[in-house]
């Protein structure tokens, strides 16, 4: 799949292929509709997806609509950001983070 510099939704059914099978590092945003910090973080991630296009892929997963993956990964608070590289979880961050912290996370991918 071509990285288009956008945050694309991922589902329980597509998580393995789109995240674990990705050729680039992938940042997954686990969020819920009732989470105000999640809503504030979404536009920041959209901007970073453009900035990091071709280097990091961005996915979002509504944990209420797609509970299996979030439950299997023990995601208990929102937002939770999970960074994957070569199919392995390399870092998890809980809570909305400032842009400079997100850049540090992405630069380490």
Automatic annotation (TrEMBL):
Residues 1-109 form the Thioredoxin domain. The record marks 29 as: Deprotonates C-terminal active site Cys. The active site is at residues 35, 38. Keywords: Disulfide bond, Electron transport, Redox-active center, Transport. GO terms for cellular component: cytosol. GO terms for biological process: cell redox homeostasis. GO terms for molecular function: protein-disulfide reductase activity. InterPro entries: Thioredoxin (IPR005746), Thioredoxin-like_sf (IPR036249), Thioredoxin_CS (IPR017937), Thioredoxin_domain (IPR013766). Pfam families: Thioredoxin (PF00085). PANTHER family: GEO12009P1. Belongs to the thioredoxin family. This is Thioredoxin. It comes from Actinocatenispora sera. The lineage of its organism: Bacteria, Bacillati, Actinomycetota, Actinomycetes, Micromonosporales.
